[in-house]
Design brief:
With 231 residues, the protein is α+β, with helices and mostly antiparallel strands. Helices cover 35% and strands 26% of the residues. The strands form five sheets. The chain has a three-stranded mixed β-sheet, with helices on both faces. α1 (2-11) packs across α2.
Length: 231
Amino acid sequence: MQRALSVSRMTGNKSTFPDWYQAIVREADMAEVSPVRGSMIIKPWGYGVWERIQQTMDRRIKEMGVDNAYFPLFIPLSFFAKEAEHVEGFAKEMAVVTHHRLKNIDGKLQPDPDAKLEEPLIVRPTSETIIGDAFSRWIKSYRDLPMKINQWANVVRWEMRTRLFLRTSEFLWQEGHTAHVSREDALASTLQALEMYREFSETVLAMPVIAGEKPENERFPGAEATYSIEA
């Protein structure tokens, strides 16, 4: 209670949510703004919370028969070009790598004009495209299904309005990708994952949520249906 009162005094009675929230993060010594706009440094106390979340959820994921893997941070632009509808929601937030070397030009470090990549690389905003490419090689017949892969990674989405932990240009996350023999099996797996998120949020994080399908205007770009938990 004393800690809560000190934060209340610091922000004042007429504080806005951003003021109050930033004060909580600062007082808890969880993170701080980094020199790169929109990014953050997660300090030991904040990262410790993430480690506990990751360890606890990772057990639940593996109990569902999912294997962990890791995919590249850089994804060829052509992979996204094949999935135009899916990519539409990320297009304005993508960070693009165009050169592979710097050069001192007129006393300043600049991209070397002779080191331009033949194909630009996208810094991972999500991994559907590159994981789908891998699945196309790994799945030879129905005997390889279902295939269930999870990745713990970081992603980059060039956000215009950022806030520590809630919305930053780079953030840590988990993404699961699966392939199934039928739509019914895929949907069952989706709802199983949805229930895992709901149960984890309510029993581990003590955060009540509503789980269900999003309306059509809020679907993930390119999706037939999108399910989520809302707090």
